[in-house]
Design goal:
By secondary structure, the chain is mostly helical. 78% of the residues lie in helices and 0% in strands. It has three helices and no strands.
C-alpha cells in the first residue's frame, strides 16, 4: 500500500491526500500513475459523498 493510501485511511483528510497526490505526480516513477488515478477517483467519490451528506442535514 502506498503512503498516500496509508495516510488517507488513517486521517481521512481529503485536502491533505490531494496535496500528496499532486506532489506524487511530480515525482518520476515513485508511485504508478494508474494507482494515482485510482486514488484521485476515490477522493472524488469520498468528497462527493461528504458534500451530499452535509447538504442533507438542515
Amino acid at each position: 500500500m502506498c503512503i498516500i493510501c496509508l495516510e488517507y485511511q488513517k486521517y481521512r483528510d481529503i485536502a491533505d491526500a490531494r496535496l500528496m497526490l499532486l506532489r506524487a505526480r511530480g515525482e518520476p516513477n515513485d508511485i504508478d500513475k494508474s494507482h494515482l488515478k485510482e486514488i484521485e477517483v476515490q477522493l472524488d467519490s469520498d468528497e462527493k459523498a461528504a458534500k451530499d451528506a452535509g447538504s442533507s442535514n438542515p
